[in-house]
Amino acid sequence: MSIVVDRLRLVGAPGTNKVMAGELSRLVRAGLRQRRLPDPQKDGLGALAYPFDAEIALLAAQYHRTAVRVLWDLYDSRAERLEPLFADLCPAIAGDERAYGWDGARISVETFGVEGFAAGERQIVGVVKNALVEAFATRGVRLTVAPSGPDLLFSVRRYDGRIVVSLDLAGRPMNERGYRMRAGPAPLREDLAANLVMLTRHDARHEALCDPMAGAGTIVIEAAAMARAHPVWMSGRKPAALSWPVFAAHASARPEPLFPDTRPVLFGCELDGDAVERMRENFEAAGVSEDVDVFAGSFADLAPERLIARAQARGVETGVILSNPPYGERLGSADEVLRLYRELGEWCRELPGWRAGFFVGNDAFPEAFGGRPRVMKPLKNGPLRAAFYLYDL
Ligand SMILES: C[S@@+](CC[C@H](N)C(=O)[O-])C[C@H]1O[C@@H](n2cnc3c(N)ncnc32)[C@H](O)[C@@H]1O
Known about the structure:
Distance between the termini: 57 Å
Shape: elongated
Structural class: alpha/beta
Bound molecules: S-adenosylmethionine
CATH class of the largest domain: Alpha Beta
Radius of gyration: 23 Å
Number of strands: 15
Strand order of the largest sheet: 2-3-1-4-8-7-5-6
Helix content: 25-40%
């Protein structure tokens, strides 16, 4: 049975499938109007697979903010040991008509989540590399192995007992966007920040967005970028696939925002002076400084009526509070963090008609904040157990 497959795979943090699918639909509607996006297949909690379409795949590799990886699935094997995996891969690669490899291309192979397989990660990497090099050699195409800076980064993942070999269309994690100059002590991963913006359903045409404890400003930057559907990559970065001969016909000029006319109304407030400096640097690097009013100080000193007035002066009547407050591990005592959550609850309730979303890894948050969340969604923050809470104020 052939193990050759042709799929676009989006991989994200666990619990993000719905948001990732929603974002891809939005991008396709905005960027490829005539195209119909089929429903994806889910592979667990953080992976979606679509039939492969080169234009949609390149759109995702350039614009998709809530995924961590955008992949092109090539082979899907049920082998459970190394020898059958090699035996599956070699003929499939040798007979593959998709010209993704070229003479002299440098390749590298990474594995993720292959713990259940009857061999170690290094052995799997070795077998996949050997299969690629040997199979391409039978066609007179020489691939060389380059552990860093490869032209083609292959990804090997295990889903439901299958080994899936894919090409990484971006060539790096999608969250390494290139705008975060300095991250600070507790930065939120960029793709998670984008997920939070989607979960609040922020509508940048009619609503402000304020992060009252903004740290390095990741949530605010992602909100600005989502509002315009801005390309992911900055500082001269671009998806690896744009340099591959196989996509030469599709690789267009420099990508532009898909909603360039949106003028998001954003606010970032931060207590710590160093963090404010980092936030400003990151806003500059991300090109969003003009969208954001920065308040240096405690949110408690930013009167809600002042925030409302500033938002109205910039043309919006209502808004969204979205933040990733301290969890407590760096604060002096448990009482101190509970006091902060209580104060935040009181502050938010002076913004009637707004919504408020919080991503926090402290189970005591909802009780201290007060009121009833409309949404409570468990969502991991790296290795930490956390949850997203959404309130109607
Ligand atoms: C978990 S960090 C936020 C990280 C941020 N999402 C990022 O990506 O960099 C929490 C931030 O809240 C700030 N903070 C704590 N108390 C505050 C207060 N009362 N007003 C404003 N900021 C506060 C801390 O200085 C810290 O930078």
